[in-house]
Structures are given as structure tokens and as C-alpha cells.
Amino acid sequence: MSDFLKNKSLVEVEGWLREEDPGRLEELWVAADETRRRLVGDEVHLRGLIEISNYCIRACAYCGLRAGHGDVERYRLSREEILECARLAVQFEYGTVVLQSGEDYGIKRGWLTDIIKTIKAQYNLAVTLSLGERPDEDLQEWREAGADRYLLRFETSDRELYERIHPPAKGQEISDRPAMLRRLKALGYEAGSGVMVGIPGQSYRILAEDILLFQNLDLDMIGVGPFIAHPETPLGRGEMPFASEGMQVPNTELMTYKTVALTRLVCPEANIPSTTALATINTALGRELGLSRGANVIMPNLSPVKYRALYEIYPAKACIDEAAEDCQGCMKGRIRSIGRIPGSGPGGRKKAVLPQE
Ligand code: SAM
Ligand code: SF4
Known about the structure:
Layout: H1 10-17, H2 22-40, E1 43-53, H3 79-91, E2 96-101, H4 109-123, E3 126-130, H5 136-145, E4 149-151, H6 159-165, H7 177-186, E5 190-197, H8 204-216, E6 221-226, H9 253-266, H10 276-281, H11 286-292, E7 297-298, H12 305-308, H13 324-337, E8 341-342
Parallel strand pairs: 1-2, 1-7, 1-8, 2-3, 3-4, 4-5, 5-6
Helix pairs in contact: 1-8, 2-9, 3-4, 4-5, 8-9
Residues 62-63, 65, 100, 102-103, 130, 132, 152-153, 155, 196, 225, 227-228, 230, 277, 313-314 line the site of S-adenosylmethionine (SAM).
């Protein structure tokens, strides 16, 4: 384990988040890359993302799909459209499909169970779900149907900030996403989570706490990307308070790399994507730099092109009108361009036996 974070303490992690010296940061990138190579290898796993619905009952203060954003034309893919995307995943040799949506109760438990079973039987792909805060009965049935993984970002470890940015759905109590992640693990899912970098109100201390919570939850997958302001949301309109002077984390590319690198050092064996949000703020090299600073996963978009613009969680999303076929060629080229290898197979978490320190 790197000397960088010997104690993995809050003070150390926060100190690194505040580091500005280019020489020291270069050391951080090298340490994260070396840890990535040793623990999860040179393969970059490809997860085909299928955005199955943009309906959502939630009013998250950061997201363009929030309920109440009336300008959004809503859609839900049909069973046939989802299965066609899964077929493409096989054709492109992706080992996993990720079924993602808003929190949409128009996605019925049994309907999705049938789709999961069909994907497993016909295509033998790993199936990841990212459908928001569904009841335990849904999660259990989908797990029994063969779903392998579940992604649910806890967004922030700070309860007060969480309540501000992720208000409860009508008639419900404020949710506890870390508790849900523990339940997902108990059900046998590989559990993934993460946060946005630089949301208004996120202090350096809070982001350092987030990174330590990744470790505490023993997450299998961790996604971190920059917060990108959507003008039709409260956070995007600047209606929510920033952390006090000198405390607010900026939503920059550099801060995202620091967070990716520190996440790799704190959770060395996790699968960590180089996110689309990062590619959005640096279309030329964001994905490659993420991969060179700790990440080992890419999630190319498999959604039918005609729906892509409607899944607008933030504006100007990267690869919005790239056909799935072109996308896979581009991604594999980018992976090879930095001396890495497109992964094969499901690419689940490898549990390493770590040497005693
Ligand atoms: N509805 C599900 C949920 O919330 O878990 C899954 C889909 S949601 C769009 C996936 C993730 O997008 C969220 O967890 C959030 O971190 C991220 N996201 C939403 N709005 C964003 C924004 N404005 N900038 C960057 N990321 C954003
Ligand atoms: Fe809905 Fe997820 Fe967006 Fe929140 S982040 S509004 S739950 S799609």
C-alpha cells in the first residue's frame, strides 16, 4: 500500500484533496495508477449502459430528470428495445449491461424480472441495475432472477446536505442510502455507489468523509464524477448555499481526478469507472486521464440514439448522438491508446489477498 495514505485518516485525505503542487499531484497519479495495475490489472471493463426510462418520482436538486421538470419528454423502453440493446452488448463483447432509469414505478417488478431472466438465459451477460430506491421485495426478486449488481450513489455522507439535495418522495421519510447499500450486499448483489464532486454545499471535509465511507461500506464499485450544473434545477440555478469561504469543493476536472485517485488508494480493489461526466467536461482526454489516475471501467452508451437527448441529467452530455457501434470502436481505441486492454467476461470485483502492512 502506498505511503501516501498510510493511516487513511480524514486529515490525510482532506490534505490531498487540497493539494495544488503539480509535483506532488504527479506522485498521487503515479501511486493511484500503480495500485490500480497491481490490484485490478490492465483490463478496462466495458459496461454497456441502457437508459431504460427517464420517468422519475424524485425531485433531486441536481438532476435534469427530476419530477416537476415539465419540459422533459418522458419515455420508457419496451422489452424488445432493451433486449436489442443487450444483443448489441454481446456483439460488441461487453461483459455487462447496466439497466439505468429514474425512480420509475412504471417499471413493474414482474416486467423487469422477465427481462433480467431473458438477458441471462439468451445472452449470459452480467446485469447491473441502477433504478433508484426500490423496495426490498423488488430488489430480492430481481436478484433471484439473476441480477448481479446494483448501483446507488449515496451522493453525500453529510445528512444535512443530503436532505437538502435529495428530498424525500411524497409521503415518505428521508432515505438512508448507506443502509440500502448494506441491504443490497446482504441480498448478494455487488454494490456500487459514489458521489458527485463539487456540489454546492460540499466541503473538503465532507468529500474526505465520503471517500472514507466508500471504504467503510466495502463497496465493489465506486463512481465519482464532477457535478455539472443543469439550469433547470435548484442546484444549477445557484439556489442552494455553498460551503463557507475556502471550504467549498470546486466541481473541476482536477478535483475529480484527485477524488478518483484517492478512491483507488483507499479502496484498492474496487471497480472504478472513468465517468461520462468527466468525459463531458474534457471531451478530448477526460476518459483516458481518469483511466490513468485510478479508474478501470468505462460505460459506453447502448441506448437507442433517438432517446439519448431525453436522458438529460445534465446538459451537453458526452457521446449523446454517437451510434452504439461507433461508440464501442471509439472506446476500445481510447483504451488501447494508453496501453490498456479492453476487458472480456463479466469483470466482477476481484477480491485480493492484501499483504499485511
Ligand atoms: N435514478 C437513479 C439514481 O438516482 O440512483 C439512477 C440514475 S441517476 C441519473 C444516476 C446518477 O447521476 C446520480 O446518482 C447522480 O450522482 C448523477 N447525476 C445526476 N445529476 C447530475 C449532475 N447534474 N451532474 C453530475 N451527475 C449527476
Ligand atoms: Fe431521479 Fe436519479 Fe435524477 Fe434523482 S438522480 S431525479 S432519482 S433520475
